Amino acid sequence: MSAFKIIATDEKARAGVLQTAHGMVETPIFMPVGTQGTVKALTPLNLKETQAQIILGNTYHLYLRPGSKIIKDIGGLHKFMGWDGPILTDSGGFQAFSLGAMIEHGVRKVTPNSPKSHPERSEGSRVDVSVSNKLRDSSAEPLSNRLNLLKTVMTEEGVEFTSHLDGSKHLLTPEKSAEVQLDLGSDVILVLDELLSPMHGRDYVEKSLERTHRWELRSLDYFKKNLKKSTNSGSLIFGIVQGVQDKVIREREAKWVASQGFDGVSIGGSFAGNTSSWFKPSAVTEGMEWIVPNLPDSWARHALGIGEVRDIFECVERGIDMFDCVAPTRRARNGSLYISPENGGRVKNMFTMKVSTSKFKNDPQPIDPGCLCYTCQNFSRAYLRHLYLSSEILYHNLASIHNVYFMVGLTKVIRESIINREFKKLKKTWLV
Ligand SMILES: [Zn+2]
């Protein structure tokens, strides 16, 4: 029986319910990212208040620190972090690959607030801030030598990577990734795939996709054999549609994943960077048009790392149900807060405003007048600006509450519009 049920549609847009071992998730839904077993600056109580229904945990980070066995012994990730709602975990592959791929292709991290780029999907993978002790210790070495310390090696078995924390070597196999996610007690487990870069040649892409098929099946096999004895015997497993910006490849990969015994599907983009086509807005819509018609209607569909307002509308319109992105919490910390269209939010300003702006110095209004979050109900722009400029810890909490509430709330409003068959009308009021 499918874990996902569609309750209403408006053309291709769907309102559904995903049943997990830790409760129902109403879709479309935005999932805040809890990289290190915490959605940064938010308590589980705060998260509930933001109306978050499901969060995303990062396998790579939790595997390296504190270690999945420690979390398993304490009762799983839900108990460990005090969150009793659903959790989706990634495979850990993105972080393991992204450090190596960035180095191999000279791709730099994209800037979260640039209107032309989108933030990458996982926090903590940045080479520039996550420099290991080993890297620091070898600071007399030329930069290229130091970065080589983080290089990943791909084999049929899995991906060998170097910890960004202490320089230790690890082998992430499909079985290991599934084992770690089962130890964490995740409600939705993702299979291991290889992250592709637009700079990979066609031959490499084809070979990689064949290997990813084998990895996805190995992940599924391990999952099925070990689910019963895991921390959460009600876990679901999602396959991944991988590929580059190519119609033939994307259609073929979607059909392949659709023919396997998964519970749902996540759609991955090519690796981010200045030349990455996935990160152009048109590539997201184009990619979804190639992929989605080839997926089963009965599966929940998750767009990995997508969480900009515009992209959420475009993807929902093409039949996507779940989103995750670090943008709300990262932007909050950087002083960039979401505003609705009636308060000046537009695609060109990424629906954000700078809290530090001098015109808010004595502004008694909330960040986003009309917003029902705890922050907007109780605090002024002037106060938030003061906290931000004073580097007060409370700023991070209040700003993150607002930004997460804003994105979760957006998907909630979108859901209602689908049920009322007014999705297109809502989209027009936002993407003016
Ligand atoms: Zn608010």
Can you describe what's shown?
This protein has 432 residues and is α/β, with parallel strands linked by helices. The chain has two domains: 4-327, TIM Barrel (Alpha-Beta Barrel); 331-430, no CATH class. It is 40% helix and 16% strand. It has 17 helices and 16 strands. It has helices spanning 44-49, 59-64, 68-73, 77-81, 93-105, 133-137, 143-148, 174-184, 202-226, 247-258, 281-291, 309-317, 327-333, 374-378, 381-389, 393-419, 423-430, and strands at 4-10, 13-20, 23-27, 29-34, 55-57, 87-89, 153-154, 159-162, 169-172, 188-190, 236-241, 264-267, 300-303, 322-325, 336-338, 352-354. The strands form four sheets. It has an eight-stranded parallel β-barrel, surrounded by five helices. The longest helix has 27 residues, at 393-419. The two termini are 41 Å apart. Bound molecules: zinc ion (ZN). Residues 367-368, 371, 373, 375-376, 402, 405 line the site of zinc ion (ZN).
Summarize the helices and strands and which ones pair or pack.
Elements: E1 4-10, E2 13-20, E3 23-27, E4 29-34, H1 44-49, E5 55-57, H2 59-64, H3 68-73, H4 77-81, E6 87-89, H5 93-105, H6 133-137, H7 143-148, E7 153-154, E8 159-162, E9 169-172, H8 174-184, E10 188-190, H9 202-226, E11 236-241, H10 247-258, E12 264-267, H11 281-291, E13 300-303, H12 309-317, E14 322-325, H13 327-333, E15 336-338, E16 352-354, H14 374-378, H15 381-389, H16 393-419, H17 423-430
Parallel strand pairs: 4-5, 4-14, 5-6, 6-10, 10-11, 11-12, 12-13, 13-14
Antiparallel strand pairs: 1-2, 2-3, 7-8, 8-9, 15-16
Residues 367-368, 371, 373, 375-376, 402, 405 line the site of zinc ion.
